[in-house]
């Protein structure tokens, strides 16, 4: 039996709850993935990294986790509505491509960006277009339950009827009566019994590229349906965790709850988890608002709002410096601060590898591991974990500067701390070159700087102060921090 003290905030109950899986030793987790019609941006990185942390931590605790993250490649219409053009089909039309060419291209780029960010791939990554038969069967059962109706070749979920028997709006806190009174009939929606009803199946217009045969019409499934169908297929009628961005809470996840209750007679999800938004000047970052910066633009520094390029690990560290349920406001200054903080962390880690043990210790590393676990157990409080790791760095620096001593056991405990929390759980690359996103390419650069500083050290030993000062001054001008130590030298980028 796995013992854990993990508590997570359940969006459904609006409180932190002790995590108890439905099946001993196993966790089923579904997270809404991207609609692949454009490059991933910072807003996509946050849920991916948030639930990557959860995935990593659950596995660390000893659970066998089945992590399902879908690819939406059909049915997601403009403005998240029931009318309008499919987002992927529109992109395909504009680019004069097949829709699946668009899907393949942007999915490949999304995967590459996630890999650079240190996000582990999910256990299963199902596509909406690959589960049309399952979605049709799911709709049939909802129709049999009486909570849906056919209208002019489309199938709609009957929200008022469902609300009479169950509570629609319980996840988002929406009042259905207020919702209904605030909604008016819109042009093109007259086939709905009520404006609040949502599409399970849409009859395709003649110009609609992606469509499939069904008992009701040649058409395509509604956006909300795919997650209910694929979640149940791969995780069962009941599963542990469903995650996604807070912007999906209504209507997407609210509709998922209604669909699964209508289909199964009960809710499917035990814990609903939602990460908060990344904002720019207080406004949500998103494709629909046109205020987004793609991940590649961050990595290359090519967006007009950016003053420099930022490594994938800097982006990851920036996201982890805020608890996942808090808003995170983007700015160049914030990213630069994260870059410096990450560099301080990695400098500490690098110094740790070279620490010389003493017979006795004047530092106290024993509490840090427990404190890091406490922070992770408190709804994945990554900023607190990071603060404890910085405390570890402070102690490392004291030993490195000769102001404190550490035993071999202390040094081993510190190495274990960084291995577990920085590398395994937070997913931060501890390879200094890898952290900059350039892999082995930076090693010759590092070796060249080391060589220059070795020449400087030799010059100092020979009392050739002119050469020594020249090397130091020129490297400082180029943007290097040079620090002389009792064992030689250290350097870092400013």
Strand order of the largest sheet: 4-3-9-10
N→C terminal distance: 49 Å
- Strand residue content: 5-15%
Q: In this structure, how is the largest beta sheet organized?
A: 4 strands, parallel
Q: List unreliable stretches of 5+ residues.
A: 432-439
Over all CA atoms, what is the radius of gyration?
Answer: 27 Å
Number of helices: 17
CATH class of the largest domain equals Alpha Beta
Oligomeric state: single chain
CATH architecture type of the largest domain: 3-Layer(aba) Sandwich
What is the assigned CATH homologous superfamily of the largest domain?
HUPs
The strand count comes to: 15
Mean pLDDT: 91
Helix content range? 40-55%
Which structural class should the secondary elements be placed in?
Answer: alpha/beta
What's this, in brief?
By secondary structure, this protein is of the alpha/beta class.
Describe the overall structure:
It is a single chain. The protein is of the alpha/beta class and 494 residues long. The chain has three domains: 7-275, HUPs (Rossmann fold); 280-435, Isoleucyl-tRNA Synthetase, Domain 1, CATH 1.10.730; 440-493, no CATH class. The protein is 46% helix and 14% strand. It has 17 helices and 15 strands. It has helices at 42-60, 87-95, 99-116, 132-145, 159-165, 176-182, 223-235, 249-264, 295-300, 312-320, 332-353, 366-377, 382-400, 408-425, 432-435, 443-461, 465-478, and strands at 7-10, 15-18, 26-31, 64-69, 148-151, 154-157, 198-203, 219-221, 239-245, 269-275, 278-280, 283-284, 328-330, 480-485, 488-493. The strands form five sheets. It has a four-stranded parallel beta sheet with strand order 4-3-9-10, sandwiched between helices. It has a four-stranded antiparallel beta sheet with strand order 5-6-7-8. Strand 3 (26-31), helix 1 (42-60) and strand 4 form a beta-alpha-beta unit. Helix 2 crosses helix 3 and helix 10 crosses helix 11 (332-353). The longest helix is centred in the C-terminal third of the chain and has 22 residues, at 332-353. The chain is elongated and about 90 Å long.
């Amino acid at each position: 039996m796995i013992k854990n003290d993990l508590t997570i905030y359940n969006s459904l109950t609006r409180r932190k709850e002790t995590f108890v899986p439905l099946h001993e030793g196993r966790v089923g987790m579904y997270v809404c993935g991207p609609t692949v019609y454009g490059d991933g941006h910072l807003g996509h990185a946050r849920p991916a990294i948030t639930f990557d942390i959860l995935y990593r931590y659950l596995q660390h605790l000893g659970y066998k986790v089945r992590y399902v993250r879908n690819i939406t490649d059909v049915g997601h219409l403009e403005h998240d509505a029931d009318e309008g053009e499919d987002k992927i089909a529109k992109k395909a039309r504009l680019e004069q491509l097949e829709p699946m060419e668009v899907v393949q291209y942007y999915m490949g780029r999304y995967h590459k960006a996630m890999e650079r960010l240190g996000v582990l791939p999910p256990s299963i990554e199902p596509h909406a277009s690959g589960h049309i038969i399952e979605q049709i069967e799911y709709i049939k059962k909802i129709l049999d339950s009486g909570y849906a109706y056919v209208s002019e070749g489309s199938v709609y979920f009957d929200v008022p009827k469902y609300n009479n028997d169950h509570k629609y709006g319980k996840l988002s806190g929406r009042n259905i009566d207020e919702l209904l009174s605030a909604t008016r009939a819109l042009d093109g929606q007259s086939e709905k019994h009520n404006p609040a009803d949502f599409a399970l199946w849409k009859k395709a217009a003649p110009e609609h590229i992606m469509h499939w045969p069904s008992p009701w019409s040649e058409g395509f499934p509604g956006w909300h349906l795919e997650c209910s169908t694929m979640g149940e297929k791969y995780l069962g009628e009941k599963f542990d965790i469903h995650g996604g961005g807070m912007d999906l809470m209504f209507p997407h996840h609210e509709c998922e709850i209604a669909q699964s209750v209508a289909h199964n007679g009960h809710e499917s999800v035990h814990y609903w988890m939602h990460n908060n938004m990344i904002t720019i000047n207080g406004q949500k970052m998103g494709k629909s608002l046109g205020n987004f910066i793609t991940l590649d633009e961050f990595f290359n520094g090519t967006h007009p709002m950016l003053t420099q390029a930022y490594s994938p690990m800097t982006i990851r560290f920036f996201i982890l410096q805020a608890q996942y349920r808090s808003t995170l406001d983007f700015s160049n200054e914030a990213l630069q601060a994260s870059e410096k903080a990450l560099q301080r962390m990695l400098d500490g880690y690098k110094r740790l590898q070279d620490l010389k043990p003493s017979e006795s210790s004047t530092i106290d590393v024993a509490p840090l591991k427990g404190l890091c676990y406490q922070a992770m157990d408190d709804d994945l409080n990554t900023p607190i974990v990071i603060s404890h790791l910085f405390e570890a760095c402070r102690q490392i620096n004291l030993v490195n500067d000769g102001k404190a001593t550490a035993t071999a056991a202390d040094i081993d405990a510190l190495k274990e701390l960084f291995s577990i929390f920085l590398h395994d759980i937070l997913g931060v690359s501890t390879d200094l070159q890898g952290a900059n996103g350039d892999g082995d390419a930076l090693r010759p650069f590092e070796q060249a700087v080391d060589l220059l500083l070795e020449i400087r050290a030799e010059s100092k030993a020979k009392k050739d102060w002119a050469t020594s000062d020249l090397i130091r001054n020129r490297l400082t001008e180029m943007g290097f921090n040079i620090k002389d130590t009792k064992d030689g030298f250290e350097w870092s980028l400013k």
